[in-house]
Amino acid sequence: MDNKVQNPKQDILPDETSFNDKDMLQDALSSVKGLVTEYGLLSSEASNQTLKTQIENLSKALDKQQRNLFNLMFEKGWYVLEKADTQKINEELTKHKQCLANLQQNG
Length: 107
Hints:
Elements: E1 4-5, H1 21-44, H2 49-75, E2 81-82, H3 86-106
Antiparallel strand pairs: 1-2
Helix pairs in contact: 1-2
């Protein structure tokens, strides 16, 4: 049984030995992911509300761009996801619910 979730892979142009479309998208996605993380930290440390709001707006735009890049890579079959086992999902959900319950009791 194949545990991969992906679209049919498209040919990468011009060839797989040079910096190609897939490489550029991977680089862009990685860069935007890093920026999203940094903007989240920057927002929490903003010195005033106006600055915080501007940073949050930029962060939202970056988050949207990150999703667009992911979708494009996934559509082309260049981003592969693993199918999650239902039992593993339920186990993780139970663990997180227990953790939340503990926090609520002790909080």
